[in-house]
């Protein structure tokens, strides 16, 4: 809206000369454009006395006409962001468990060797193999590390506690329908630097068993491998 007191002051000043430069552009438009310019000219000439009500009407009409309506702006939409393609995670095989001891690593090497090197009649054609660790008191199941390392072997391996053995053969407890299997045994392990000796052998039945001494050596990659197989007895 225009300040009419200001307009009246500017009218008085305009009788003497042009508007000052410091006048607000909007107010200058109210004072010196359109009908107000007519009022200014009339007042300057002094030819006609214009009633104040008419002059105010001219000012209000012109100011309303010159007021700029706000422009409606379209809502800004963010451009879609490019996203990198998602790649499906590739499943990786589980890492082999860390050896709980050098003795376990040596036993794994002997059990793996026995899978393909024994004097049994069944050889690798048996449905399963039972693994045992012979100690002074009795036979025990191998450690969890040994069983995990032997997982996936052919024939499949099970802990010795899952088997029963007699002169008739080796069977899974409560499941003789699976047929006869083998028992692989390892006994005392003696490690001297990068070389170890292990007592062991296999058992298939009353007339098929052996006792051996295996020499196992550490390889450059840190693994152990059987390098010598000495049979002590067989039946």
Could you please describe the fold and organization of this structure?
This protein has 235 residues and is of the alpha+beta class. It folds into two domains: 4-66, no CATH class; 102-234, Nuclear Transport Factor 2, Chain: A (Roll). It has six helices and nine strands; from the N terminus they run αααααββαβββββββ. It has helices spanning 4-14, 25-32, 34-45, 52-66, 102-116, 144-149, and strands spanning 128-134, 139-140, 156-159, 163-166, 169-172, 182-192, 195-205, 208-218, 224-234. Strands 1, 2, 3, 6, 7, 8 and 9 form a seven-stranded mixed sheet that branches. Strands 4-5 form a two-stranded antiparallel sheet. α2 (25-32) crosses α4 (52-66). The chain is globular and about 75 Å long.
Low-confidence stretches: 1-8, 10-16, 23-68, 87-97
User: H/E series, N to C?
Assistant: HHHHHEEHEEEEEEE
Rg, please? 53 Å
How many distinct helices?
Answer: 6
Summarize the entry for a quick read.
The protein contains six helices and nine strands.
Detail the topology: elements first, then pairings:
Layout: H1 4-14, H2 25-32, H3 34-45, H4 52-66, H5 102-116, E1 128-134, E2 139-140, H6 144-149, E3 156-159, E4 163-166, E5 169-172, E6 182-192, E7 195-205, E8 208-218, E9 224-234
Parallel strand pairs: 1-3, 1-6
Antiparallel strand pairs: 1-2, 4-5, 6-7, 7-8, 8-9
């Amino acid at each position: 809206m225009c300040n009419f007191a200001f307009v009246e002051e500017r009218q008085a000043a305009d009788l003497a000369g042009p508007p000052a430069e410091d006048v607000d552009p909007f107010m200058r438009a109210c004072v010196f454009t359109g009908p107000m310019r007519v009022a200014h000219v009339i007042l300057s000439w002094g030819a006609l006395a214009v009633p104040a009500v008419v002059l105010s009407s001219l000012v209000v009409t012109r100011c309303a006409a010159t007021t700029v309506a706000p422009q409606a702006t379209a809502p800004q939409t963010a451009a879609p962001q490019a996203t990198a393609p998602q790649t499906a995670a590739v499943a990786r095989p589980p890492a082999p468990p860390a050896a709980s001891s050098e003795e376990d690593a040596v036993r794994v090497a002997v059990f793996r060797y026995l899978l393909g090197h024994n004097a049994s009649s069944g050889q690798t054609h048996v449905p399963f193999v039972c693994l045992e660790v012979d100690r002074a008191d009795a036979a025990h199941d191998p450690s969890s590390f040994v069983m995990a390392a032997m997982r996936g072997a052919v024939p499949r391996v099970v802990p010795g506690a899952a088997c029963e053995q007699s002169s008739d053969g080796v069977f899974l407890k409560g499941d003789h329908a699976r047929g006869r299997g083998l028992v692989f045994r390892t006994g005392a392990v003696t490690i001297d630097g990068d070389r170890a000796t292990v007592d062991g052998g296999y058992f298939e039945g009353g007339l098929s068993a052996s006792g051996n001494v295996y020499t196992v050596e550490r390889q450059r990659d840190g693994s152990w491998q059987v390098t010598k197989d000495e049979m002590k007895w067989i039946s």
